[in-house]
């Protein structure tokens, strides 16, 4: 569809902000291969290639469809000025293919391009940045169903989940939909409107709801639909390569600066605060996880340190621009401890979340999102600002949980005729050989 965009979306480029977001997009893109190392190291040697391929497969599928219709569904109406659909998603065909973002015009001898908001960033650069968030969200889910799923079914799921769940949720939270601070959103209905926006707006700076609660809940639903690995509860599934896990965690931490600080869309003081908050929260979460291990098990582990890092990164993601550094330390410390305890839930309740997507991403994501209501420096309860922010954060989180759970279940059951599970022999011998005709380590 060839859409003529309104004059209001054209502007001049701010080269500094543009360079910042392009670099940040590269950092966030790195996070998906980093996740492949993190997840790959946590699996057994006979499953590592399949585990890594699930991340790379998501990277391939989601990248293509994001350019085709994902950006249009998530943010299209912000550029076209058209009405979204029930506050849930924008028209996927209006900016189909994203070529329309490359329009330009001459104004007073200066070339103006389609820019995003008031940041002076070309809209195509904003698309690039947001594309990387969609990719890693889908890749995160794979850890919950490791070592037992057909690769083709995973690829089909990746495209369906991105389209039916991720793109709408991104619109609802970031694109002016019902979970944003828009005047017709849930927050506005709860506490009213001031100057055309919700009096108390939901806060999700870089993806606590859109990425981590979303991925964590989807992982839980798929783990229940796909079922347990053979021998779950009886077999010790030990990580086959802990240096891979540590490398993946390190690269995730590095890439996360693009994830969080890049979401400011400019290199300014807020981006600096976000960088500091991201760092201290992550460090505190690692300490929190290790403290649980010390008291519970009598020793601190490398896998625990790496997992604590990820839990801290998850928790601070929605809150990184709203907290002080001290508040971020508190948020991270609690996140690490909560996630360390939560990973045991799968044994208590009998679901096989292979690599603890639920314990880390869902639990830490929920804490980070709701903790904003307690610790936000301008609106948090602990700063004397009442209960409104925590009420809004909780309602948004619950709506997102329900939305993701229902639609993921629909997709998961719809794909059952295609077949989720590899056969028992393939699972026993090794999914790498069965699905990819390869092995990670040659022994002859």
TrEMBL record:
Location within or outside the cell: Cell membrane; Membrane
Membrane topology of the entry: Multi-pass membrane protein
Similarity field: Belongs to the ammonia transporter channel (TC 1.A.11.2) family.
Protein name, as recorded: Ammonium transporter
Organism domain of life: Bacteria
Gene designation per UniProt: amtB
One Pfam family linked to the record: Ammonium_transp
InterPro entries linked: Ammonium/urea_transptr, Ammonium_transpt, Ammonium_transpt_CS, NH4_transpt_AmtB-like_dom
Entry's transmembrane regions: 20-42, 49-69, 119-144, 151-169, 205-227, 239-259, 271-292, 299-316, 322-345, 357-375, 395-415
Gene Ontology terms for molecular function: ammonium channel activity
Domain Ammonium transporter AmtB-like: 19-441
Principal location listed in the UniProt entry: membrane
This protein's GO CC annotations: plasma membrane
UniProtKB keywords: Ammonia transport, Membrane, Transmembrane, Transmembrane helix, Transport
